[in-house]
Amino acid sequence: MSLARRKKINTIFHVILVACILFSLIVLIILFTDILKKGFPFLNIDFLTKYSSRFPKKSGIRAGLFGSLWIIITTVIIAFPLGVSGAIYLEEYAPKNRFTSLIKINISNLAGVPSIVYGILGLSLFVRTLKFGRTILSASLTMALLILPIIIVSSQEALKTVPKDLKEASYGLGATKWETITGVILPYSMPGILTGTILAISRAIGEAAPLVVVGGAAAIWFTPKGLMDEFTTLPLQIFTWASKPQADFQLVAAAGITVLLLVLIFINLTAILLRNKYQDRMKM
C-alpha cells in the first residue's frame, strides 16, 4: 500500500472518529438538557432530605443518596488497595510464564463479564454462604468484585509506563525492590492508576442489576448508619420511579438522574484533582 493511500485512509478514519465524538456529545447534551428540564422543578432541599413516598411531590432521595455513598466509598476502600496490590504483584513479582499470562488474560476477560453475573455471585457468596445478609457490606463486596478487574488491568498498564531507566537508577542508588516500588514506580504510575479507578467508579455508581440481585430495596424510610444495614441506592430508586405509571413520577425520576449525575461528577472531580496532584509532583 502506497504512502499516499495510507494517509488518505488515516484521514478518513480521523474524520469518522471526530464525527462520532461530536455526534455523541450532541446526543448527550440533548439528553441531559431534557432530563434537567423535566427534573428541575423537583430539585430542592426537600427532595434531598425526604424519603420516598407514594406521592410524587412528597418523594425524596435521601435514603438512596446515602446508600449510594456508603456503597461507593466502602467499595473503593476494598477494591482499590486489592486491585493495585494485585497489579504490582503481577507486574513486579510474578514469574513470567504461561500460568501468569493465563491469569492476566482471565482478569481481562472478567472486566467484560455482565454485572448481573457478579450480582448472582454476591448473592450466593456474601448473602447466603457468609450470611452477611442483604446489607451494605454484601453490596459493597459485590461491587468490589465488579470493579476489581478494571482496576487491576488499568493499574498494570500504568505500571508498564514507568521508564526502565528510573527503575535501574533506583536500584543503582542501593534501593531495594520494595523501596523502588513505593518510591519510584507507584508515584510515577499513580495518575494512570487513578484514571482507571475513575472509570471503575463511574461504572459502579450507575449499576442497579447486581444490587437488585443482592437484595437492594426499592425504597427504605431510614438513613443507613452502618455496614450491616439494609440499603437502597440512587439507581434503584430511579428505576422504581421510572417504572410507575404516574406521569409525575417520571419527572421525579429525572430529578433523581440529575442528582446521580452530580454525585458522579463530584466523585470524578475529586479523583481528577488527586491525579493532577500526583502529575504535578512528578514534574517537580
UniProtKB/TrEMBL annotation:
NCBIfam families: 3a0107s02c. The keyword Manganese does not apply. Its main location: membrane. It holds the Pfam family BPD_transp_1. Belongs to the binding-protein-dependent transport system permease family. CysTW subfamily. It comes from the Bacteria. InterPro entries: MetI-like, MetI-like_sf, Phosphate_PstA. GO terms for biological process: phosphate ion transmembrane transport. One of its GO terms (molecular function) is phosphate transmembrane transporter activity. One of its GO terms (cellular component) is plasma membrane. The chain crosses the membrane at residues 12-33, 69-90, 110-130, 136-154, 204-222, 251-274. Residues 65-270 form the ABC transmembrane type-1 domain. It is found in: Cell membrane. Keywords: Cell membrane, Membrane, Transmembrane, Transmembrane helix, Transport. It is a multi-pass membrane protein. This is Phosphate transport system permease protein PstA. The keyword Transmembrane applies.
